[in-house]
TrEMBL record:
Organism: Colwellia echini
InterPro entries: His_Pase_superF_clade-1, His_PPase_superfam, PGM_Phosphatase
The name this protein goes by in its record: Phosphoglycerate mutase
Length: 271
């Protein structure tokens, strides 16, 4: 079994706004509290074996500090970045004009044209239909995240399959009294540190919910520093070397069942 914890980064430094591709620092105090929480958990039986992080500093800072403190391998997945909001990305809500004036031009170039709440509200109300100026579309964002998620699962399932085969070979040399050690190695826990939008897309994919719905993005709160947990149960079978890449991809994904067991559980309340 593979257990993957999706943790959203802590709050960031700066005014409230859409921070997608903009690289903004996390709040140090909250980051330290979340790090303390993860280190405390790592000392229990529920330990992680590896860490995967978005490249943006608000995720990567925590990932690198936890990796160093716990001596865990860390990989950076550039496809797990938050959605790019184009001209609105990184702009504080307070710096936007509430509505467009009658004599305003149609141009949405942030360098020459003020950004208006009316444009942003249109996106919030129909995120799959409205593309913000110079932004990533919701369809492209979804495709990027789900592709990254499936690649992540494929790598982890393949690694677990390899470990299981190795353990089977090793267990033949072990006494019956130590067989529980081999069994415990078949359970794997991964920590993924990412963004609210990324986590929503992954959850919608697994739960087979409409990721295009405005309600999904507006009503499901993925709080900063919260944890969503996914369990993958799979039937590990060796994959013949002569299979095509496409066939191997299909077979690997047919071997496991994804289950969401926790959504946005706060981690910082007790810290």
């Amino acid at each position: 079994m593979i257990e993957i914890d999706l943790i959203r980064h802590v709050k960031v430094v700066g005014k409230a706004g859409l921070y997608g591709a903009t690289d903004v620092e996390p709040m140090l105090i909250e980051n330290a509290r979340l790090l303390k929480c993860l280190i405390a958990q790592q000392s229990t039986v529920k330990t992680y074996q590896s860490i995967i992080s978005s490249p943006l500093i608000r995720c990567q800072k925590l990932a690198r500090e936890f990796s160093k403190a716990s001596q865990l391998p860390l990989s950076i997945d550039y496809e797990l970045q938050e959605m790019n909001f184009g001209d609105f990305d990184g702009v504080a809500f307070d710096d936007m004009y509430y509505e467009a004036k009658a004599n305003d031009t149609v141009s949405f170039d942030a360098k020459t044209q003020p950004l208006h709440w009316s444009t942003l509200e249109g996106f919030f109300n129909a995120p799959a239909k409205v593309i913000l100026p110079n932004a990533e579309s919701l369809f492209d964002f979804n495709e990027r995240i789900i592709s990254a998620w499936e690649s992540l699962l494929e790598r982890q399932v393949s690694l677990l399959a390899s470990d299981s085969i190795t353990n089977i070979d090793t267990s033949s040399e072990m006494s019956a009294g130590n067989s529980s050690d081999t069994k415990s190695k078949k359970r794997k826990r991964i920590l993924v540190i990412a963004h609210g939008g990324v986590i929503r897309m992954i959850l919608a994919h697994i739960l087979k919910l409409d990721w295009k719905s405005p309600a999904w993005h507006q009503q499901l709160q993925i709080a900063n520093g919260s944890l969503s947990r996914i369990k993958i149960n799979q039937s590990i079978q060796p994959l013949p070397n002569h299979q095509s890449c496409a066939h191997m991809h299909e077979q690997i994904h047919a071997q496991f069942h994804q289950q969401v067991t926790t959504i946005a559980m706060p981690l910082l309340e007790d810290f």
